[in-house]
């Protein structure tokens, strides 16, 4: 990038978090998959960058970029218990993690300043329920990696992110064809989040399925978006895997046989049948559309974990995970 | 009085119409002996964005006849009518126009579109556009763009680049600040509670100041420090209306910034030849709040 110093923060560079991503579209895809909520919690740590959104205290979505996916990644803070360490700056924060809340739409608007699908272009095509369904299943839309400006030559737009240890001065810098955009994004105190990962891990995982995303994408495209709940039946016996939807338009059921080559692995100890609010499942579809593989796990109390594997390029992958709590038995429409 | 012509460059007139339509509902066109001018009423200037134009008549018309007591005919009409007429003439074999003769200010500009019918026979379509002939006393009052006292002038970068960035910025805030210096740097900026975004363009061309045309004593602002940035704050929709002219693929656009006052953009049409194909001038006022 250009040598001109665009940073507006006065914090010296070696006391700031810095991450350099070669292709901003990598981050845009992740954020769009989380854009059903207005605000996300961002966690910066030595291991990478995480974004978490929570829905109605019953569901959580997490998108993660590991530090090795960045060309440069600096988290120069060393929390030390040694109070006598002379190299420690006592008045400075030495966090293990930098956590703050940020507006996702704003973030995506900045990251797509030089082009590429935006969150707003998504909404405008989503006016008609049928077209929004198509949107989720059209992975080609999500595969426009590095579509920067400059007459359609596929040069990826790089991104540089910096941040002060207290979460202030969160800045994004993007460049294409010698045009530089700098964004100072406002950050807020993070909201309290549920520890749904522990809620999931606490109980035994009863079923685990890994499958290519294609079948799930077409299964979901069959589901009427006016559905109120989705049920998942997983069993070591037939029908093995059944997805049903129930709502105003009636009921629909899709079975998936165990023995075809789209199911990469299938482990199921007991038969389980849980229902989930459609409004909590629906947001997964963007991540599903961008993914090549999906892992579905359900634990003993029905908490559903769906992990979507996204291929960033020919060698790198990352994951978006959704954790969803089941509807209580009495709320079931049956 | 007589006005009649055959349109030879419907595409160009349609583009002009489309750009003008964004800015103003009613236009005044001056049909002069060699040039067509687009003009605006003086009162309209400071309240909103304005577009002026000048184009050689022979770029648009052939068999161009203008006969009147003075050398020009001034007509005011609703842009929507002209756009509609032009759009229906897109596939035409011939489009011509003629000013019909009724007395008084209210006249009709008849646009005749000849299409090739399916049977091979020509089909004629007529659009009658109500126009008001602007009387000479009023015509004298019509505003021709005058040089405003600006501090910075600079050649804009590629309009499609500015346009796509500005369209993204529109999602962020209703006003955009444009600043530039004579060292070739232009900055587009929007600010909202959630974010502050600046886009920097460097190494832009700065038209040389012709000292035979500009006196340093009269225009000291132009000769000051090249690092000095002049800024103007615009309604982002005004700026997008101007950016609509990217459809002309102009050969250059000179941006003149009169800080806290206005922006004037000189859009030069044509390919890269020296030929004078005409120019449009946009006036975008500074918005204080």
In short:
Chain A has helices at 25-33, 104-111, 119-125, 129-137, 139-142, 196-202, 213-222, 278-281, 284-290; strands at residues 17-21, 39-45, 48-55, 59-66, 72-74, 97-103, 159-163, 170-176, 179-185, 205-212, 227-234, 241-247, 250-256, 263-268, 272-277, 293-299, 304-311, 317-324. Chain A folds into 2 domains: 13-185, Proliferating Cell Nuclear Antigen (Box); 196-333, Proliferating Cell Nuclear Antigen (Box), CATH 3.70.10.
Give the C-alpha Rg of chain A: 21 Å
Number of helices of chain A: 9
**Helix amount of chain B, in percent?**
10-25%
As a percent range, the share of strand residues of chain B is 35-45%
**Topology pattern of chain B, helix = H, strand = E:** EHEEEHEEHEEEHEHEEEEHEEE
Q: If you average the pLDDT of chain A, what whole number results?
A: 82
Broad structural category of chain A = alpha+beta
Largest sheet of chain B: 13 strands, antiparallel
How many individual β-strands of chain B?
17
**What amount of the residues of chain A lies in strands?**
35-45%
The most extensive interface between chains reads: A-B, 26 and 20 residues
Q: In what order do the strands lie side by side in the largest sheet of chain A?
A: 6-2-3-4-18-17-16-10-14
Poorly predicted segments of chain A: 118-148
Q: What is the topology, as strand order, of the major beta sheet of chain B? A: 5-1-7-8-9-6-2-3-4-17-16-15-10
Strand/helix succession of chain A? EHEEEEEHHHHEEEHEHEEEEEHHEEE
Tally of distinct domains of chain A: 2
> Which geometry of chain B do the CA atoms define?
globular
The 3D shape of chain A can be described as: elongated
Descriptive report:
The complex is a heterodimer of chains A (334) and B (289). By secondary structure, chain A is of the alpha+beta class. Chain A folds into two domains: 13-185, Proliferating Cell Nuclear Antigen (Box), CATH 3.70.10; 196-333, Box (Proliferating Cell Nuclear Antigen), CATH 3.70.10. Helix content of chain A is 19%, strand content 37%. In chain A, the strands form three sheets. Chain A has a nine-stranded antiparallel β-sheet, sandwiched between helices. In chain A, helix 1 runs antiparallel to helix 2 and helix 1 (25-33) runs antiparallel to helix 9 (284-290). The longest helix of chain A is centred in the middle third of the chain and has 10 residues, at 213-222. Chain A is elongated. Residues 118-148 of chain A have low confidence and may be disordered. With 289 residues, chain B is α+β, with helices and mostly antiparallel strands. Chain B has two domains: 2-139, Proliferating Cell Nuclear Antigen, CATH 3.70.10; 152-285, Proliferating Cell Nuclear Antigen (Box). Helix content of chain B is 18%, strand content 40%. Chain B contains six helices and 17 strands. Chain B has helices at residues 10-23, 57-60, 79-88, 136-139, 159-170, 236-243; strands at 2-7, 26-31, 35-39, 50-56, 61-67, 73-78, 94-99, 106-116, 122-133, 152-155, 175-180, 186-191, 195-201, 230-235, 252-258, 262-268, 279-285. In chain B, the strands form two sheets. Chain B has a 13-stranded antiparallel β-sheet with strand order 5-1-7-8-9-6-2-3-4-17-16-15-10. In chain B, helix 1 packs antiparallel against helix 3 and helix 5 (159-170) runs antiparallel to helix 6. The longest helix of chain B is centred in the N-terminal third of the chain and has 14 residues, at 10-23. The model of chain B has no long low-confidence stretch (mean pLDDT 86).
